[in-house]
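Q: Given only this backbone (411 positions), what sequence would you predict?
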């Protein structure tokens, strides 16, 4: 649990670093309004704040993609080798951190190639070198990528892309948890882009290209995800768009500060304020739901462990560390895996009292303990040879009680 809390603390660090970048580089390059709006959006929009507080890699992916996009901007402004190095390094970090951040990086490189072909073909050599270096630096992760793809193929759960999911994805800049909110967010985004394009007709082509590139990264990430979902296997989920959404909000912040016409500025500010209100309401609701579900989860697990005749089975590797703290309070059996959050099960045995079982033997384990009140923590409903009663469920995690009346003991 100390390791888990440490990971949560580490997830907050990128948020602090992004705020520092907003107060320095973004403020210096794009002005106080852009820096302030972007920093504020990261606290209330697109589930950003919730994901800066959980033990996941979203926060670091957001930080890396923002730095990569800023270096992309420096290259367009005439930056030299240093800008290319920063783009390459942070693009690789994106790819190591989250696969959707890798898709966004691919969009950045495609957009940069289009820019080079149109405006500065002499930079094509540096583009090729950067792509080659990024590919070489990513080679050590290829075995892990193959292994993860194999694991996902064996137990897949993401739904096919449909019109509702597509609307929610594009509208994720406002955390579109409903179709109506998604449509409102999509229309607002379209309106903001239209207003900026109309207001910036007299602006230099390179500056206009740079500012609109953030929207291209966001929409391009969605388009590539849809393409891969249709051609190979569904991969699109709105929350995976967090890194790209951060780039979109940086772009929205820049666009607002660049609008010169007072009337258009006020309309744009009203659209952004509406999105911010939607996002703030969703953030408050999400945090409240997480708090309440956490309390309810604890009540359920306390009631199980307070039963001296209870037996707790954790049959998912990712959930072992989250619930292993209950092992010293109940007869606990966990899936026999090699590593849990960087620790071996042998190491965890020094702190927790639990047993292990092989996944295929779970029915035998149940059959040999029919005299106990058996509970299973699983991802969705467990697949067993006997029936179960769902006790609680949240965020895909299910706690079920096993019906042992029709189970025959196995020796």
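A: Predicted residues:
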């Amino acid at each position: 649990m100390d390791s888990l809390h440490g990971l949560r603390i580490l997830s907050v660090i990128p948020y602090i670093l992004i705020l520092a970048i907003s107060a320095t580089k973004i403020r210096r390059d794009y002005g106080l309004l852009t820096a302030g709006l972007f920093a504020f959006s990261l606290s209330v929009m697109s589930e950003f704040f919730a994901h800066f507080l959980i033990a996941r890699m979203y926060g670091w992916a957001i930080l890396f993609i923002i730095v990569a996009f800023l270096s992309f901007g420096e290259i367009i402004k005439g930056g030299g080798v240093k800008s290319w190095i920063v783009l390459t390094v942070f693009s690789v970090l994106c790819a190591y951190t989250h696969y959707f951040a890798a898709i966004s990086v691919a969009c950045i490189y495609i957009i940069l190639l289009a820019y080079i072909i149109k405006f500065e073909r002499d930079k094509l050599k540096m583009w090729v070198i950067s792509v080659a270096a990024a590919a070489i630096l990513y080679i050590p992760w290829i075995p892990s990528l193959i292994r993860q793809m194999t694991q996902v193929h064996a137990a897949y759960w993401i739904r096919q892309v449909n019109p509702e999911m597509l609307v929610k994805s594009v509208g994720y800049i406002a955390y579109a948890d409903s179709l109506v909110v998604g449509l409102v967010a999509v229309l607002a985004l379209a309106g903001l882009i239209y207003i900026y394009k109309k207001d910036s007709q007299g602006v230099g082509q390179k500056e206009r290209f740079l500012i609109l590139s953030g929207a291209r990264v966001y929409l391009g990430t969605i388009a590539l995800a849809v393409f891969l979902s249709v051609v190979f296997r569904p991969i699109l989920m709105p929350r995976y768009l967090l890194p790209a959404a951060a780039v979109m909000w940086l772009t929205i912040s820049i666009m607002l500060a660049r609008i010169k016409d007072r009337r258009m500025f006020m309309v744009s500010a009203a659209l952004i304020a509406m999105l911010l209100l939607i996002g703030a309401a969703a953030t408050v609701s999400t945090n409240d739901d997480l708090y309440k579900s956490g309390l309810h989860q604890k009540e359920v697990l306390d009631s199980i462990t307070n039963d001296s005749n209870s037996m707790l089975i954790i049959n998912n590797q990712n959930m072992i560390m989250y619930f292993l703290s209950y092992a010293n309070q109940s007869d606990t059996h966990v899936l026999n895996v090699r590593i849990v959050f960087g620790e071996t099960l042998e190491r965890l045995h020094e702190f927790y009292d639990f047993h292990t079982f092989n996944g295929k033997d779970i029915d035998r384990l149940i059959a040999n303990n029919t005299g106990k009140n058996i509970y299973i923590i699983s991802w969705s409903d467990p697949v067993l040879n006997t029936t179960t009663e769902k006790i609680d469920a949240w965020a895909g995690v299910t706690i079920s009680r096993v019906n042992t009346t029709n189970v025959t003991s196995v020796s």
